[in-house]
Write a structure and sequence with these properties.
This protein has 260 residues and is of the alpha/beta class. The chain has helices at residues 20-28, 40-43, 66-78, 97-106, 119-126, 158-164, 177-186, 216-223, and strands spanning 4-9, 31-34, 51-54, 82-87, 110-114, 140-144, 167-171, 194-199, 207-212, 229-233. It has two domains: 4-117, Tetrapyrrole methylase, N-terminal domain (Cobalt-precorrin-4 Transmethylase, domain 1); 120-239, Tetrapyrrole methylase, C-terminal domain (Methyltransferase, Cobalt-precorrin-4 Transmethylase, Domain 2, 2-Layer Sandwich), CATH 3.30.950.10. β2 (31-34), α2 and β3 (51-54) form a beta-alpha-beta unit. It binds S-adenosyl-L-homocysteine (SAH).
């Protein structure tokens, strides 16, 4: 009997936003391929019995190339195993889940996708920033910041993004933030547009750095912001209030009863 591969989204980190379907499938897995994005909480609670393979892709320190990941998924499933490919957030939002699904289908392997809570929406929410708001933004655009905007043949139309308005949410953009901000302003976006950078969203060490398109790169440099971080550009950022944090209970803790 051939096995099956599940492309599972873990959410942004922490058991609280792992779906019940994801937790159930993880508990039944024979093999789990993961990288660091799901975060320490989830990774440290993976079941003992499963073979766990660290794909180690986080921050570019590849320990297993994409090709190898796909080969392992296919061979283990062909040998009858239940395989989980665990990904941060949602597997189809900048997670190569789409590519992996194509490979599995081509290899004749049964596959199922388990959607996850994407950091693109949940991380701003954790900072009290709604990605849409009737007064401030009726559209939201998700952008990968992995690509250098000045690269020849960039797949991203920055000129249109500078004009589109609404909220721009950039993932994987910490390294290229200076050039992203500069490119948007060069194409006509107001340099006073507010920007929030949320580092380690929904984790104990979450930090929110704010500024405008003109100064956010410098502020982040001074604050030594590191990935993973979600960058939110647009007027919704004005709703961020550091004095009124949207409280996220520490992971795994039950909501407490009434204070005495
Ligand atoms: N599939 C994922 C995104 C993968 S790309 C999803 O749906 O969330 C990786 C990027 O996601 C990171 O560079 C960062 O921009 C963002 N990210 C994921 N988890 C995050 C977290 N807990 N805090 C901040 N950013 C996060």
């Amino acid at each position: 009997m051939a096995g099956k591969v599940y492309l599972v989204g873990s959410g942004p980190g922490g058991q609280g936003l792992l779906t019940r379907r994801a937790a159930d499938i993880i508990s039944r897995a024979d093999v789990i391929l993961y990288d660091q994005l799901p975060g320490e909480r989830i990774l440290s609670s993976l079941p003992e019995r499963a073979e766990k393979i660290d794909c180690g892709k986080f921050g570019g320190r590849h320990t297993l190339e994409q090709d190898d990941i796909e080969k392992v998924m296919v061979s283990r499933a062909a040998a009858g195993k239940t395989v989980v490919r665990l990904k941060g957030g949602d597997p189809f939002v900048f997670g190569r889940g789409g590519e992996e699904l194509e490979i599995l289908h081509a290899a004749g392997i049964e596959a199922e996708v388990v959607p996850g809570v994407t950091s693109a929406v949940a991380v701003p929410a954790a900072a009290g920033i709604p990605v849409t708001h009737r007064k401030y933004a009726s559209t939201v655009t998700f952008i990968t910041g992995h690509e250098d905007p000045e690269k020849e043949g960039s797949a991203i139309d920055w000129e249109s993004l500078a004009r589109i308005g609404g909220t721009l949410v950039v993932l994987m953009g910490v390294k290229n933030l200076p050039i992203i901000a500069e490119t948007l302003v060069r194409h006509g976006k107001d340099e006073k547009t507010p920007v929030a950078v949320i580092e380690n969203g929904l984790r104990e060490n979450q930090r929110v750095i704010t500024g405008s398109l003109s100064d956010i790169a410098e502020v982040c440099r001074q604050e030594k912001v590191k990935p993973p971080a979600v960058i939110v550009i647009g007027d919704v950022v004005s709703l961020y209030d550091p004095l009124r944090p949207v409280l996220v209970p520490p992971d795994g803790e039950e909501p407490s009863g009434c204070p005495d």
